[in-house]
Amino acid sequence: MNNRIYLSILILFTGLNVYAQSSRDSFTVYFFLLEECRITQAYTDRIIDIHRQYACDSTGFVALFPNPLSNDTTVALFQEKYRLPFKCTSELAAEKAEELGITVTPEVAIVNEHTREIMYRGRIDNMFERIGERRRVVTSFELEAALHAIRNSGEVPVPRTRATGCFLPERKN
After folding, report:
1. Which pLDDT value is given to residue 173?
2. In whole angstroms, what separates CA 11 from the centre of its chain?
3. What predicted TM-score, i.e. pTM, was given to this entire model?
4. For residue 98, what are the contacts with CB-CB under 8 A and spacing of at least 6?
5. Are 144 and 103 a contacting pair, CB within 8 Å?
6. Which CATH number fits domain 25-167: 3.40.30.10, 3.40.50.150, 3.30.530.20, 1.10.10.10?
7. Side-chain-facing half-sphere of 59: CA atoms under 13 Å
8. Which helix (H) or strand (E) holds 151?
9. What per-residue confidence (pLDDT) applies to 43?
10. How far apart are CA 142 and CA 80, in angstroms?
């Protein structure tokens, strides 16, 4: 009888360890934004909605401003004006953009911080198919689909998309 209890406890703990190992994954959603980009500005309400829906213990959000002219003051003013409810910074933003292959704003990357894998990189949705051409009805929600898949331990359906927006200024080394 004692052996059965021990075996049951062993199975229970083994199952818990497997679950705990997979739940150790944490994800960061990196939004790359430019203060003066009208496309970035057009997305701020959508970004807030996505944060409200998907922020949790295992998924964090940060807005990075990779423009060499961005600083603490310009970022704080943007954050206040558009009410972004998560960390916004220009610190090391250009380096992170380069590391993740970001070329325009707004563009987003979801990174598994445990494995360092880029789970998704690209546009938020298809509000802008081309610069200056805003859709009346958004029909494709790639970022939300990726976050939904990650939340449900599934595979991201489309891990890469092409973002439309303002080109990042070239870095001066």
Report:
1. 60
2. 36
3. 0.84
4. 171
5. no
6. 3.40.30.10
7. 20
8. helix 142-151
9. 97
10. 27
Structure letter (DSSP) for residue 121: E
The DSSP string of 20-84 is HHHHT--EEEEEE--TT-HHHHHHHHHHHHHHHHH-BTTEEEEEE---TT--HHHHHHHHHHHT-
Cβ 93 vs Cβ 79: under 8 Å: no
Q: Which residue type occupies 105? A: T
Task: Verify cis geometry, omega within 30 degrees of 0, for the bond prior to 68.
Answer: no
Give the model confidence (pLDDT) of 20-67 as tens digits: 224 457 999 999 999 999 999 999 999 999 999 999 999 999 999 999
CA dist 131 → 70, 81, 105, 123, 126 (Å): 22, 23, 11, 13, 11
What is the crossing angle of helices 72-82 and 38-54, to 10°?
70
Cα gap 72→89, rounded to integer Å: 7
- pLDDT tens-digit map of 72-118: 999 999 999 999 999 999 999 999 999 999 999 999 999 999 999 99
Residue 82's nearest CA partner among 53, 106, 118 is 106
Domain boundary assignment for the chain: 25-167
